[in-house]
Amino acid sequence: MFNPLRNSSRAPFSPETIQAYWTPLAWERPTPPPTGAGDYLRHYGLNLVDTGEAEHQDFGYFTANEQLICAQVFWPAEPVGTTLVCHGYLDHAGLYTHLIRDLLALGQVVVIYDLPGHGLSTGREVAIDSFQEYLTVLRTCFMHMKGHLPRPWHLLAQSTGGAVAMDWMLYPREGDPELMAVVLLAPLVRPAGWPWVRLAHTLVSPFRDYVKRIFTSNSSDPDFLDFLQNRDPLQSWRLSSHWVGALREWVQRFLDAEPCGYAPVVLQGDADDTVDWTFNLPAIRARFRQAEIHMIPGAGHHLANETPEHRAVIRRCLRDRLGAHPAGASSPRA
Predict the structure, then answer these.
(1) 233: buried, middle or exposed (CB in 10 Å: 19+, 13-18, 0-12)?
(2) Is residue 328 one of the residues assigned to a domain?
(3) Is residue 35 situated within a structural domain?
């Protein structure tokens, strides 16, 4: 189930209690947060029903790849559409409060889940063998959403979540839903220092499944950096060599992809030292020729948790893209 916390005795909530009482998310009817979830919601500022920012909240799990995927749905008083949020590597839903609040203010029903091995979801700690495991989770979530959540639908993805979203667009399958807008925040193709990452993986992976994580300044918001390192009990303190191996395979899959008709909006900070954005943006443009790319001067990698002035740029983008289309409008294909 859940991987032991680094400081579990000091954790302000019990993941084990939440998992002991949660139930499958009933997409067709309310699924209130389970026993023990209140402390979790308050710790991450996700108690948005209490603050009046959400009309109600669903909290449970769905099954994908034989794992229990923790999922939450936040409902505004007057929904005008639905946005699915896909988080990045080492993240979880609790770190996306800013975006969830902004989306609710736009009348969006917000769906967010924890990737396998992240947050409250089950699975090997921050480890996968193939990025296709993430694609299966995304498509399973879309399948559950059908017929239950208001349209139009949108996809908002950060970093690794952006890689998953791009793969979904580049390699479509029958039954995939139409999306009104796709917004990518600092999407991952290659991480910074990619040649060294590959060399280190080649040397280390035969002997070790994990290496120690070194926290970096992936945001210019010092409060977020402090929270990440000192006050977030769901953070992993190690990196998976299996995940890096899966990334190596996925990068080649991305580079082999033919251009597609989707026109995502890409937001990228020019102070991002986590991804190799000088390589990534041209590579994205080559495969999404109608992509709309915007640079955010001074912003780091974790755009979902940047300073208020940088997040204001994202908020304006979301307002322009998600707030301008009536239900039933067409998809973001060029």
Answers:
(1) middle
(2) no
(3) yes
**Alpha carbon separation from 89 to 50, 163, 225 (Å, rounded):** 29, 10, 16
Answer yes or no: are the C-beta atoms of 35 and 21 closer than 8 Å.
yes
Q: What angle do CA 274, 280, 281 make, to 5 degrees?
A: 115
Instruction: Report which of 82, 77, 65 is spatially closest to residue 27, judged by C-alpha positions.
Output: 82
Q: What does the alpha-carbon distance between residue 334 and residue 332 come to, in Å, rounded to a whole number?
A: 6
* In 115-180, beta strands by DSSP E: 153-158
pLDDT of residue 10: 67
Tokens representing residue 152 in the block: 């139009």
Number of domains in the chain: 1
Per-residue confidence band for 184, with pLDDT thresholds at 50, 70 and 90: very high
CA atoms within 13 A on the CB side of 182: 27
CA atoms within 13 A on the CB side of 11: 19
Residues 94-104 have pLDDT tens digits of 999 999 999 99
User: What is the residue range of 262's domain?
Assistant: 8-322
Which residues lie closer than 8 Å to 5 by C-beta, 6 or more apart?
11, 15, 233, 234
Residue 332 maps to a domain: no
Element (DSSP H or E) covering residue 249: helix 241-256
Peptide bond into 152 cis (omega under 30): yes
Tell me the C-alpha to C-alpha distance, in Å, between residue 83 and each of 79, 103, 242: 11, 8, 30
> By three-state DSSP, how is residue 255 classified?
helix
CATH number at residue 148: 3.40.50.1820
Report the chain's mean pLDDT, rounded to a whole number.
Answer: 93
- Which regions of 41-122 does DSSP assign to beta strands (E)? 56-64, 67-75, 81-86, 108-113
Q: What is the DSSP string of 267-281?
A: EEETT--SB-HHHHH
